[in-house]
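Record format v2
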Amino acid sequence: MKAGIVLVVLGVVLLLAGSYLGLFVAPAEQYMGDVQRIMYVHVPTAWNWMLVVITTFVSAILFLFTANAKYDARVEAGLEVSTLLAFLLCCQGSIWAKPTWGVWWDWDPRLTSVAVLLVAFVGILALRQFVDDPRRRAVWSSVATIIAAVDLPIVYFSVKWWNSLHQQQSTPQTVSSQFHLPLRLNAFGVLCLSFGFVVLRTIVAARRLEQEMAAPPIAGEAGELA
Amino acid sequence: MLAAALKKELLLQWRSRSQMMAVFVFGASSLLLFSFAIGPNAEMLRTFSAGFLWLGLLLSSTLTLSESFHAEMENRALEGLLLLPSDPRALYYGKAIANWLQLTVLGVALVPVMVVLYDAGTLQLLKLLLIIALGTAGLSAPGTLYAAMTAQVRAKQTLLPLLLFPLIVPALLASVKATSFVILGDPMQQSRSWIALLGAFDLIYWSLCGLLYGRVVEE
Amino acid sequence: MSEGVVVGGWGYVIAAYTVTALGFLIYGIMLFTRLRETKRHD
């Protein structure tokens, strides 16, 4: 718990520092002007979204193999945090797209894949709401998470291909200027913040599960969901 | 084992064939509604006909897929089946194949509707059949798995499409693209790659879902 | 396609950063609320 709070605070500090630099100190981009500054948050969010998705996927697999409830708690936390990050990504990407390409959405394969996975994870979170048996809920979420995660590269590839015939504009340029410091600071900032959130949310999930299992013991030990 | 499961599924489907008729009408009327949404612009309707066909199929699949577990849920037959010394995977594949066949038949039945409403005919019927078969296979594999899950849950009507739709995006894209090429012409032979993508998607999901099914229905 | 420099756009930058900050903030608040909720019953 302490670790979680430390991570969150650290994340906030790093983000404030990185964003300050990115907004006020870094020079404006050559062609994109000030709008490019959005990349100083967009890219870090994107990297960390991918990271949280991967850790959630791994937790899901670990749960199916070990039936240990702690992994289910991590899956629940990972689903929520990656959904938050995905939502932010779509907003940032959309806001970036308007001045750059003139439209709010242009089916960029990366952003579209994020949107698809966002919907998929929201679906899994919804599924969790409607399943009362904790063991079943855990197994089903893990199965659904694995299926969705496996789908992600397929979705990306197919959208990329599908859009390649129409795409006139180039994909969003990552920061090409020399000023990488704000990017790195923000990257670590979002990293600490996201994983801080995951740690804390895991604790919430674990506590809730304990409370669920506490009144008449259903499956014996509170730590085992087999 | 698989043959027995499949036979049972097909028998069940045959018994409820009047329901299939209703689903077909649903599919056909959604194709009709799409044309109202676009307007009587023959050119545009023809251009988007592939998309409409597959959207109609996708929407209809939510009906057929959830129905496929209706029998099991009625008399708690699912638990009974699990007590039999049989591999749950055989049950899964039996049902998935039956669902697939059902959707293929539905797809084929909707083609004449598409031809008439959107002036979207083609002579490459075998290729079209292949695309429909591969595309519906892509819907059926994850669809059967999720139907098994949601059949036992509240709010199943909303959960099944919510879970299924984001997942089958690649299959949808590929099916629509390939069908489009078949209807509108394919000067650069691109449909082959989309069909390959469909094949890969089917391969991956028919194995993955079969693998995971046992965990989904275990007690 | 080369229209030269995209002028201005600070509004978009602020919007993006604000959305991000709000997103994290609101989630953080929700999280801490839930942490305290579950603690009370322990």
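Chain A touches chain C at residues 8, 15, 19, 23, 30-35, 37-38, 41-42, 45, 81, 84, 87-88, 91-92, 95-96, 98-100, 168-169, 193, 197, 200-201, 203-204, 207-208, 211 (CB under 8 Å).
DSSP finds six helices and no strands in chain A.
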